[in-house]
């Protein structure tokens, strides 16, 4: 397992991102209770440090794929591996530790309305027992990276949608996770804001994080030169 380094230089997060995670699906089938199957016997590898898009029509299974990676859903059959960990076998503390190594970004931001930008971003670190000093040390470079240094004291309803999504990215990455999962992060954004979000994710990827982004936005996918995993009829097919 790669180690999570600590942010040292406020002007450069490059040293802070650990070596990215490796992801593997081995003959995975996922069937929900009232449903035939969403994924059927799929195998897939995503290497450390890759940036991949996941596309597919509504209901095809994109979110399910991400949920399997962070243990929100368990496979009906097969194995889901993140780094050297079999996600299904993790329980309690070990599952929490895996989740600390994964930054998750959602389409609807999931910010706490009564808390400021800074509080939203640092809330998780507080819950994880980071010292106040360490939290402060991480906050500024993270705000800088997402372009929100001047808005740390605002509340979510005082921000645009694009800014809110950047807060949610900051929250996902402040602990410098080696794996970033973004589920339709641009689904509520206009093209300019979408592009900003993708550029931030690309920057984190250039620092070493493995990044997996689900999207419906074919234009965005075409604009970037990243591998694409298409989810269709229970299968995952990779473009390269
Ligand atoms: N908790 C659940 N219980 C039962 N069925 C579910 C559950 N979650 C998802 N499904 C079903 O699994 C299929 C895949 O859902 P999923 O959310 O992964 O698709 P998606 O590709 O992310 O869709 P969208 O693009 O609309 O977000 C759908 O048919 C959905 O109804």
Automatic annotation (TrEMBL):
Gene3D superfamilies: P-loop containing nucleotide triphosphate hydrolases
Location of this chain's protein in the cell: Cell membrane
GO terms of molecular function: ATP binding
Gene Ontology biological process terms, A to Z: cell division
Topology with respect to the bilayer: Peripheral membrane protein
Key word Repeat present: no
Known partners and oligomeric status: Homodimer. Forms a membrane-associated complex with FtsX.
Function: Part of the ABC transporter FtsEX involved in cellular division.
Family: Belongs to the ABC transporter superfamily.
The protein's name in its UniProt record: Cell division ATP-binding protein FtsE
Organism: Okeanomitos corallinicola TIOX110
């Amino acid at each position: 397992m790669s180690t999570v380094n600590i942010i040292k230089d406020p002007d450069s997060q490059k040293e802070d991102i650990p070596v990215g995670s490796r992801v593997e699906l081995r003959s995975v089938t996922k069937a929900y209770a009232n449903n035939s199957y969403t994924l059927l016997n799929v195998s897939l590898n995503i290497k450390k440090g890759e940036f991949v898009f996941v596309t597919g029509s509504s209901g095809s299974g994109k979110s399910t794929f991400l949920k399997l990676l962070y243990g929100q859903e368990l496979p009906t059959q097969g194995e889901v591996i993140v780094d050297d960990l079999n996600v299904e076998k993790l329980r309690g503390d070990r599952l929490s530790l895996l989740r600390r190594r994964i930054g998750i970004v959602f389409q609807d931001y999931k910010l706490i309305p009564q808390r400021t930008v800074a509080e939203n971003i640092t809330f998780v670190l507080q819950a994880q027992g980071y010292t106040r000093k360490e939290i402060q040390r991480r906050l500024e470079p993270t705000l800088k990276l997402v372009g929100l240094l001047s808005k740390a004291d605002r509340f979510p309803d005082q921000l645009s949608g694009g800014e809110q999504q950047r807060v949610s990215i900051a929250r996902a990455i402040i602990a410098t996770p080696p794996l970033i999962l973004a589920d339709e992060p641009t689904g509520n954004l206009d093209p300019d804001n979408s592009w900003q979000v993708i550029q931030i994710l690309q920057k984190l990827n250039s620092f070493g994080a493995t990044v997996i982004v689900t999207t419906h936005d074919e234009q965005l996918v075409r604009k970037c030169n990243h591998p694409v995993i298409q989810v269709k009829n229970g299968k995952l097919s990779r473009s390269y």
